[in-house]
Specification:
alpha+beta, Rieske Iron-sulfur Protein, Naphthalene 1,2-dioxygenase Alpha Subunit, Chain A, domain 1, 2 domains, seven-stranded antiparallel beta sheet, six-stranded antiparallel beta sheet, about 30% strand
Length: about 350
């Protein structure tokens, strides 16, 4: 609980930050891109948590991230080009040719004349800490842009057959704040009403099936169990599949399936573009030969599920625009309530 001596102003600020459907978690890792999405020397513009980011690789292949706004006249640096300056790789602004290294420090201002003394190294753009591991690029967004902090934890290490080229990648933007997107995707009660395909029947009887949960770092997990019998896709893999589903803040959910010695990992990452748009990325890896063979079916399923969830989000928005109070109950809303408590706990940690 916050210290009782906290001022009214700071209490109001904290309340605003952690209220459901508002604000973003900072000082944590967000999914940014797959390793294969970033090519050496190519400048790419992304928007994370309402901030424009130039995310890319330098000419030597090292991943970096800096704010995609030139401090001179606000031109996007991603519209420029990457060039070599001696042994260094620098980003050249397309407007006036100012250059910045991949730490965000200005290295040259071409318009300066020899008699003009100016320490261009004092000019900086925001630099973001990035990590590349297991074929994924993660970005660390700090709470205070003026005082970047070193991460106090690392990105998640995913289990199973991760890395290299995934078998399936599907992406969709939801017209939703990340909080609504997260609880919508983890909600077990909507399946029988939203997801109905010939190859996947979300039976209402599954709602009463008890699952065993346990805490995990920055989240929780549904411990390993047999998949629901309504999934014909799982049955095709043969054997006796066992699955474990883990959720980790701020927006990562992964399902690790074991079929004898073979494995399938399904990863869902939610990254806010802004306070009204959330990007959902679903990725699958597997060393199971049959999975690659039936991957078109799984790809069809991923697209169908995302579209159905997106359509329901749009429908939900019709009610949310009136800012109603939401009634959270136990049972089916338990995971959503855990998410809210975890989010509050991490938000307080970063104060």
């Amino acid at each position: 609980m916050p210290d009782q001596t906290t001022t009214s102003a700071s209490r109001a600020e904290k309340t605003e930050r952690v209220v459901f459907g508002q604000g973003f978690l900072k000082d944590c890792w967000w999914f940014a891109a797959l390793s294969g999405d970033l090519k050496p020397g190519k400048l790419q513009r992304f928007v994370f948590l309402g901030e424009p980011v130039l995310l890319g690789r330098d000419l030597d292949g090292k991943v970096y991230g800096i704010r995609d706004i030139c401090p001179h006249r606000a031109a996007p640096l991603s519209a420029g080009q990457m060039v070599r300056d001696g042994s260094a790789c620098v980003v050249q602004c397309p407007y006036h040719g100012w250059t910045f290294n991949t730490e965000g420090t200005c290295t040259s201002v071409p318009s300066l004349t020899p008699d003009q003394e100016m320490d261009v190294n004092r000019i900086k753009v925001r630099n973001y800490t990035v990590r590349e591991q297991q074929g994924i690029v993660w970005i660390y967004i700090t709470a205070d842009a003026r005082r970047p902090t070193e991460p106090d934890h690392e990105p998640p290490v995913l289990p199973g057959v991760v890395g290299g080229n995934p078998i399936i990648v599907e992406t969709m933007d939801f017209d939703s704040h990340i909080d609504h997107a997260v609880v919508g995707l983890m909600d077990p009660a909507h399946g029988p009403y939203v997801h109905q395909q010939w190859w996947w029947r979300s039976a209402k009887s599954q709602l009463s099936k008890i699952k065993q949960f346990e805490p995990r770092e920055h989240g929780f997990a549904m411990v390993r169990h047999a998949p629901s019998k309504n999934s014909r896709a799982y049955k095709i893999l043969g054997g006796a599949p066992a699955t474990e589903i883990t959720f980790r803040l701020p927006g990562v959910r992964y399902e690790h399936i074991e079929v004898g010695p073979k494995q399938v990992l399904g990863l869902t990452c939610l990254t806010p573009i802004d306070d009204k748009t959330t990007r959902i990325t679903q990725i699958f890896w597997s060393d199971h030969g049959l999975f690659r063979f039936i991957s078109p079916l799984f790809r069809l399923g991923a697209k169908a599920f995302l579209k159905q969830d997106g359509d329901m989000v749009n429908l939900q928005n019709e009610g949310l625009k009136y800012d109603p109070s939401l009634l959270w109950i136990d049972d089916a809303d338990t995971q959503a309530k855990w998410y809210q408590q975890l989010k509050k706990g991490m938000d307080v940690r970063t104060q």
